[in-house]
Amino acid sequence: MCRALARRGVRVAPFKAQNMSNNSMVCADGAEIGRAQWVQALAARAEPEAAMNPVLLKPGSDRRSHVVVMGEPAGAIESYEFAGGRVRLAEAAFAAYDDLRSRFDVVVCEGAGSPAEINLRASDYVNMGLARHGGIPVVVVGDIDRGGVFAAMHGTVALLEPADQRLIAGFVINKFRGDVGLLKPGLDMLEELSGRRVFGVLPWRPDLWLDSEDALDLEGRRSTHQAALRVAVVRFPRISNFTDIDALGTEPDVDVVFAGNTRALQGADVIVLPGTRATIADLRWLRERGMDEVVLAHARAGRPVLGICGGFQMLGRMITDPDGVEGAAGASVEGLGMLEVDTRFSPQKVLRLPEGSALGHPVEGYEIHHGRITPAGGAEEFLGGARDGAVYGTMWHGSLESDGFRRAWLREVASAAGHEDFTPGTEDFADLRERRLDLLGDLVEEHLDLDALLELATEGVPPGLPSLEPGASR
């Protein structure tokens, strides 16, 4: 919708009051926001900024998340605080929304999870809490590919209190496969039962993918070439910024898989240790599964290993956390010892957009980390990190999106892996992302009633929307 509206000349901004994701991005002013909102800003042709994602929760464990407020670190929140300890976060989110609304024609607000999470409604500021704050008309989007979409949509409205129900203006079906004519009777019945319209049905497009937001996107990118260079990415429990791998997935002769056990690592040409929000805990996880031995044997055989941010820190000698940034204060653990560097965590987070060169090509990236790297030997410098032969470590997320560097690095690691005939693709990654965003805009224009949605955004909630009781029909 951001791209479709922007192409119509509407000044549009994306907004998500709270995002829970370990995939994030650094804005030009140094603020950190969710990767999804950064891409949505590109779609809107707007400069990404902190107000577009005022609260970012980065899970460090199942019960604790690190908090980023308006682009800056703001401590941590425990799971037991979710029900009532988020007043300050709500205030920041509402202020950011009000600011954007004053500067743009339309603000497209993405919810989180389901608006019918009734156990959390009292403290909600992301879904209906936000809608009530701004008097925002709401469209419920259902992913029909996961099944149960009619029950989910009708049930969502029915579970809400009447004041919330009055803001639900209608529905959109997403990721539909097949003949829409077969779906129409269900759409008609949903409109009749709910008293709300369906604004359209977006088709499933298997060739369409965007910068990944969360673990639901960890499917890899498989090549159709039998002799493809096989890249295995370790699937850490707290994997973060795995959008670093997206550019490899666009290469026609590269096969990207995510590996959660030793078997999945076997036969890889290149092993990647990606970023993680819990470096020490995920290094322990790697060792408990014996995957560290596979990585070490792979490197000893002269085959390429790449570590990015937390993955790079694991490749070093020692990791210390004196202030308990990741958990227990004073934690210290030996790394894999593959690169002559040490890591020390600091409460002050590094957020920056570095530029440089490597392998004869310009490189851009972004840094988001608490770990400070200290070289301990004579390892060659490599993109804010270190290199020893075919073992590479970098603190620069996003570096593989630099096309010239990516192709040069792929040629180098392919040669080390025995693929002397490897030929990288010619696709410009930034252009490819733009074409994907334009395709999304095309799909919205073709399959949704965008005029009605724009009217909804500018005119507000239509009057007379009925209230529903659970299980009721009209």
Gist of the model:
This protein is of the alpha/beta class and 474 residues long.
Walk me through this protein's architecture.
With 474 residues, this protein is an alpha/beta fold. The protein has two domains: 2-208 and 435-459, Rossmann fold (3-Layer(aba) Sandwich), CATH 3.40.50; 215-428, Class I glutamine amidotransferase (GATase) domain (Rossmann fold). The chain has 15 helices and 26 strands. The strands form eight sheets. Strands 14-12-15-17-26-25-24 form a seven-stranded mixed β-sheet. A hairpin with a 2-residue loop joins β24 and β25. α5 (149-159) runs parallel beside α7 (180-194). The longest helix is centred in the C-terminal third of the chain and has 19 residues, at 429-447. The protein is globular.
For CATH, the homologous superfamily of the largest domain is named as: P-loop containing nucleotide triphosphate hydrolases
CATH architecture of the largest domain: 3-Layer(aba) Sandwich
Describe the largest sheet: 7 strands, mixed
Class from helix and strand fractions: alpha/beta
Number of strands: 26
What share of the residues does DSSP label as strand, in percent? Answer: 25-35%
Any idea what the radius of gyration is?
Answer: 24 Å
For the biggest β-sheet, the strand order reads 14-12-15-17-26-25-24
CATH class of the largest domain: Alpha Beta
Total number of distinct structural domains = 2
Share in helix: 25-40%
Return the average pLDDT rounded to an integer.
91
What is the tally of helical segments? 15
Low-confidence parts lasting 5 or more residues at pLDDT below 50?
A: none
Fill in the CATH topology of the largest domain: Rossmann fold
* N-to-C span: 31 Å
Given the C-alpha coordinates, what overall shape results? globular
